[in-house]
Design brief:
With 166 residues, the protein is of the alpha+beta class. It has one domain: 2-Layer Sandwich (Beta Polymerase, domain 2), CATH 3.30.460. It contains 5 helices and 10 strands.
């Protein structure tokens, strides 16, 4: 799905488990979803492409989402900034939206317990043999704080710490 979006002009950054695996350069576990970060101006194209790929809108992260619109979209209807789409085959895409400001800083367009910086979007990794954009290791660590980590998240962070100590 990452590469399909890229070929349709939607830039993504991998987060979560796939983001950690990309940084490590190998898949370390099965993943129930793909966590991605996208820029607000791509949101309309992103959601349309998900529809084209037979993904269906599932839900909004009510405690996190903001409703925004952007001048680059075809209409003025506000869209959520933290949501999940799912495919009938079980794949899920968990999405969060950012805005790149004129000074190149990044604004997280959802209620986030951590600061997201432009540097955090400079991560590079590999899925299979293909290069991908992802959050940096430092940002992955920050994103996995402030809540009780489920075992698979704790394992992700341990692997990241072993391979990329602070």
């Amino acid at each position: 799905m990452y590469f399909d979006m890229e070929s349709h002009g939607v830039e993504l950054w991998l987060m979560g488990g796939w983001g950690v695996d990309a940084l490590l350069g190998r898949q370390t576990r099965d993943h129930h979803d793909l966590d991605v970060l996208i820029e607000v101006e791509s949101l309309e194209r992103f959601r349309q492409r998900l529809d084209d790929l037979d993904f269906a809108f599932q839900f909004v992260w009510d405690d996190e989402t903001w409703w925004v619109s952007d001048v680059s979209w075809s209409g003025p209807v506000p869209q959520p900034t933290a949501f999940v789409y799912a495919h009938e085959d079980g794949r899920e895409v968990d999405t969060h939206v950012v805005r790149r400001e004129a000074d190149n800083s990044i604004t997280a367009l959802w209620t986030s317990p951590y600061e997201l910086t432009a540097e955090a979007l400079s991560g590079r990794g590999v899925v299979g043999t293909r290069p991908v954009r992802c959050l940096t290791a430092a940002m992955q660590r920050r994103a996995h704080t402030g809540y009780e980590l489920p075992p698979h998240h704790a394992a992700d962070i341990r692997l990241l710490a072993e391979a990329m100590p602070e």
